[in-house]
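Lecture 7 notes: from sequence to structure.

We start with a single chain of 683 residues. Read the sequence below before looking at the structure.
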Amino acid sequence: MANEIRSNPLKNKVQQLHLGSASLLLSLLTLSAPVAAAPLHETPDDIIVNGQGLPSPAGTPAYGMTIIAHDRLVNSPSGRIETVLTDVAGFQQFRRSDSRSANPSAQGATLRALGGNASSRTLVLLDGVPVADPFFGYIPFDSLVPDRLSDIRITRGSGAGAFGAGAVAGTIELTSANRRDLPRFSASAFYGSHDAREVSAAITPDVGGGFVSVSGRWDRGDGFHTTPPSQRVAATARAAYESWSTGLRAVAPVSDIIELQARALIFRDERTLRFKGADNSSEGQDASIRLVSRGPWAVDALAYLQMRDFSNVVISSTSFRKTLDQRSTPSTGLGGKIELRPPVGENHELRIGGDIRHGDGQTNEDAFNGGTGLLTEHRHAGGAQTTAGMFIEDDWTIGSLILTGGVRADHWSIADGFTRKISAAGVATTTSFANRRDWAFSGRAGALLKLSDGLTLRGAGYTGFRLPTLNELYRTFSVFPVTTQANALLDPEKLKGVEIGAEVRPVAGVIFAATAFYNRLDNAIANVTIGTNLRRRDNVNAIVAKGIELNANMNLTDVSLSASYAYSHSVVDAPGQAFDGLRPSQSARHAASATLAWNPAFGAGVSTTLRYVGKQYEDDLQTDALPDALTLDAVAHVPLGGGFTLVARGENLFDRKVITRNQGGSMDYGTPRTLWIGLRFKG
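Now the structure, written as tokens:
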């Protein structure tokens, strides 16, 4: 069998494409660097190393933008990025679980109730690099450590800039911590409920005119029972987890205007879900290099490589035997971009560029008879997809008015798709799918009008598209008792939307913002019920989402308050179907978050976060409900001197039962009350 996998023509073609793409990306980086760039050892002492990309254009706020600052990231009660992101009402994963108790493949990111399946409809970038898994499309949240980040910028509207293909439900941009946010040495250690432990450390020395940061994090826990007491059996297991990640980041000035940035990340995560032996793991090795020039001709060029793998064991909920061993799902992501900002005058900011993104992968699975435990079938499925695009955007400032607009042209291809099944007797059945390719065009335009120091109006319209993932195209899966079939004929999703908003600043330190939006996602990919306990991934006519988003921020001396609320009236437009007019699965009408913090001058602090998510449904027919949930989190810190800080954290302090899955009454719970105590050190 191993020989059959190695001889698959997909791999040979992919290797050829990798070599060609790598050469192209290297050429782009080389061309973007001036010939007269100074050697590192000749760097002047007064050069300021930024460690980031080019600044956001003036018109970016026209599309609606929320920023989560560094202080909030490092003072999260859970210590997890996906929890912090729920500060922005409307952010959701496919399920309500975090990366300690969710199946990683269900951790797609989406905004504005445009969900319905586990793939990400929101583009997530780390230092400009897409981070979604090349095969599944999920986000490896466990590898994104808050302490390593400077801030997060969330734009809810569809995007058209670099890597804009895939941003049908907005963009989440994570920026690595710069020198200002990184002490020379930092470390933390926490102990929590369920024998949980979390240890992290980072060392960031100055090297020449730049810096190098080496960081690591390890955490584990015995976990909690996701299964309700009435459904527990002898085979029931706690949601135990263990993960680690190691990151390396180097930033070096090449000249007084040019900076080179390199980043590498290795991570692994292991979890147990519901039953003994139902173990999964995910791992990755990522690397990227970026060149930023802040001269008259500003340049932002990068290239990246990702190697990922995922495994998963499914245990029968009746016989408690292994029914599926998804032994490995190796995948590779490769891509890069170049963006140029020519000098076109004080009132213009022009951006021209291109990008390429390739992903390939396949799943290797063994199926077993749940009753006898005997092997029934070997399964392999996979393919490759590539998107290459060009974009141009311009921001024009006319007094108190800023106009912004941009267009993208993308050529996409889906190739080498196959499924292969080998029976226990060795009889093989292989299906190959026709290659597909086409062009997609998208764009956006917006306006920002500052009427006074206290009032700003904005409006925007946009289009976007997303290719189906390799998982959606080729891999069938089961979550007892429901089987969901793949669909190799899925078409790309296409979004068009408009929004208007206003921002009011009545007094210094107080901001109120409101947005009304209408989004229509045509050809939306959903898990559609086609029979008893049987679903299939299909393109439905559309998902239509309209609603309002409210945000408030107050910073008055030692007290701050941030609050966010989203009402999303999202329905499926599917004439003639039983689910026409119903909500997309896993989509709530109401979501809200509010954080109240007290940070006095002597360095101590406390904050509490109240979160609410409305009723959702597990399925497209709205037969299995997930009740609404209200939770309270808190974190407090007290300086001890000598660089040490005592920190106490609490999650779900009221110990609410948050139902994260409900399939015919078979349920899972989310995180119960979890308490932490620990120390931080900075020196």
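The two ends are 54 Å apart (CA to CA). Keep this in mind for problem set 3.
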